User: Fold cytochrome-c oxidase from Caballeronia sordidicola.
Amino acid sequence: MPLTAPVQHIHGSDSAPLNYFLHAAGPAAAPTLTLDWIFTAICVLVCVIVGVLLIVAIHRRRANAPLDQLVQGNDGLRWIVIGVGLSVPVLVAMLVYALVTLNRVATPAETPALTITVTAYDWWWKVAYDDAADASLRFVTANEIHIPAGEPVRIKLKSADVIHTFWVPRLAGKTQAIPGQTNEQWLQADVPGVYRGQCSQFCGAQHAHMAFEVVAENRAEFAAWSAAQARVPASSNNANVSAGKTLFLDKCAGCHAVRGSDAQGAQAPDLTHLDSRRLIAAGTLTNTAENQLAWITGAQRIKPDSLMPGIALKREEAANLSAYLATLK
Assistant:
């Protein structure tokens, strides 16, 4: 397998139309979207009014009138009173409406049955399903959040380094992930689908390549996915796979974890079920065998300043490692 395979980058939601983010897909996002449209309309109207008044004032100004005469007299005072009289009620109404909207989206209508802990790193997302009563059903994944459609889900947000912001535009507003603090928000997708999320707080060189996906599924599909994620990947006696696993433990286990193996690293994404994910490198690449190797050997070329080093591999090593990664389903 060539080590210089073409890299397939992902920019935004690869199947989404241009107006994708202008539509809400859940009750935590719909009130905020309406608020955005109303505030945008008010701001545009104010700009138009100010622009029209400015044009009228320019045309009405006497050619040689001193500047001090333009701001004195009853005529100028009258316009100041009118401006303040119109602005204050509008601004107060906007404030009240914003507070009412914040209250509406603060808590879901029903208590979430699922809590997910998301920890932000430079530049990826750790996703822990750690609230199951049965410890055997708890697991960790990365950059891909699965939720049951039509149900509220609580998200606990943490940061391992700097301030990040968790944002899924179609499902909820922005919530910051702050070091040493746990913040919360909730998501709910009305219908099954894939919803793109993004860090929206500038956090460093690869801020733009710190994306994730929320996959909403019906309850049966979500239960099946959760059960599969909780299981340890099946072992293989294939010689190439065994050689690839040995190579992985030697070069990757210091940072990455694979449950059921000696790889217990905690500073990089858990790769236990890597091959089940649609994207890798926090949404930067599609998850193909070619892109996996391109990322392993050229991470600093694809995502400069990330903590993932480029690892030089011989052709046989690349083939063996790829064979092992393909078993992490």
